[in-house]
Design brief:
By secondary structure, the chain is mainly alpha-helical. It contains four helices and no strands. Helix content is 59%, strand content 0%. It is globular.
Length: 86
């Protein structure tokens, strides 16, 4: 939610709307859409059912979250910004 709002999404939306916003605005790589659906499914289960996630599921969610944060925050700053147009 915080990442999506910081990237321009409106406040007060649902988790699914934030995930869709990030995917739709290009913050999720094109071949990462299945990850978005995976996260949506797992987070929905965690929000609506009282059951522990498997260790493998938790590791996969952490890995995707780490990669998304790197994609949004670290990679753009790892190369010099293009020169400004006069």
């Amino acid at each position: 939610m915080n990442v999506a709002v910081q990237q321009g999404a409106k406040e007060g939306q649902t988790f699914v709307e934030y995930v869709d916003y990030l995917a739709g605005e290009g913050f999720v790589p094109p071949n990462g859409r299945h990850w978005v659906d995976y996260i949506r499914t797992k987070s929905n289960e965690a929000n609506h059912e009282i059951k522990l996630m498997s260790e493998d599921d938790a590791k996969q969610l952490i890995l995707f979250s780490e990669m998304m944060l790197k994609f949004i925050y670290e990679l753009p700053k790892s190369v010099p910004a293009p020169p400004s147009s006069p």
